[in-house]
Structures are given as structure tokens and as C-alpha cells.
Amino acid sequence: MNYGYQEAFTGLTDYNHFFVNGELLARFLQESGANIDRLTEMGLPVTVEQSEQKAHLDDPLVYHKFNNFAEKMVNWDKLPAKFTAAGNQVLTNTAAVDLEYQDGLQAVLAQTDEGEQLRIAAKKVILADGGYCGDPEMMAEKYADSAELLNLGERKADGTGIKLAAKLGANTNHTPVFGLVCLGGHFQKNLVENAIE
């Protein structure tokens, strides 16, 4: 079988009905081998095997699955200590609530589950909040029949990143697209939300 970058890019673009961020997908695929190596180094090895999902039984043999789920969870829980050891700060149970922006990004304003307010100086921020399927108002705005949908997405995905990007003037208009697995609203962000400077 000959399955490389071009086949993966074409296959994923077609599978997602061309609602993809081409630049981001290209970068992801170009780094996929190195990322798999990094996962192994972090104690999260994967093996290529046939997908268990009926819709993908005839797909090329490129599906990566964690070798041992229980071991994966143990090693996953060790990652914050590795990040801290490398000189990074790890905050759990903490969410971004606003961005301080004046002549460029100055800081992320965050709040802990206990209500403590934090100001985290930053020149760049990645808004990776998972969409907005946890915000009934945003869902209703894009999907007239949203109350009839079986929403299997994360309720904590409340659209915070989209709202913060819009507050700074980013174009957050989009054509709604459902993920066939999670049934959550997604849209092409054109990297505007992924790196605000």
C-alpha cells in the first residue's frame, strides 16, 4: 500500500467534506511521525491497526491506537510533572475568562474552580476550547433544531475561545458542520483563533 502525506491530506479533506483548515491540517500531517515518536517518549506508545469503527473498516491501515489504555491513563497523569520539570507552569481546574489586549496581547485572565482570579502574562495564546456544543444559546443560533439533537459533545465546551476571539474582532462567522462522531458544531478558524498576537 502506498499511503503518504498526499493520500492522508486528500482523505481527511474529503472525509470532512472540505470543511478543514488546510494549512493547519498540512502542518499536523507533516509533523505526525515526529509526534508519534514524542508520544512514545512520553510513555504513550501507539500501534497501527484496523479501526474498530464500522464506517472505517475499509480504510487504509493507518489507524493508531494506544497500546494499553490503563497504562496510557497512568502515563497521561504524569505529563503535568514532566511539563513542570521543564520549567513550565501547569494549572488544573482553571479556565480562561478573558484576554487583556492593548497594543497586542498582554495576558490571559483566568479563574480557578474556587473563584481565584489569575492574570497570566502571555504574548500568544492558543484558544482550544473544543467548540460550543455546551452553550445552548450558541447552538440554537446556528441550528434551528438544536433542541432535537442528541448532543454527545463535551458540555464544558461552552464556546469561550470563540467568544474571546470575537471580542477581539476575529471573524467567527461560519457554516455549521456536524462532526459525525461527536455531533458538535465546528468551523474553519483560519488560524485566527489558534494564535492571537
From TrEMBL:
InterPro entries per record: FAD-dep_OxRdtase_2_FAD-bd, FAD/NAD-bd_sf
SUPFAM superfamilies: FAD/NAD(P)-binding domain
Source organism, top-level taxon: Bacteria
Pfam family, one: FAD_binding_2
Record keyword Zinc-finger present: no
Residue ranges constituting the FAD-dependent oxidoreductase 2 FAD-binding domain according to the UniProt record: 28-174
Keywords linked to the UniProt accession: Flavoprotein, Oxidoreductase
Protein name in UniProt: FAD-dependent oxidoreductase 2 FAD-binding domain-containing protein
Native organism: Ligilactobacillus pabuli
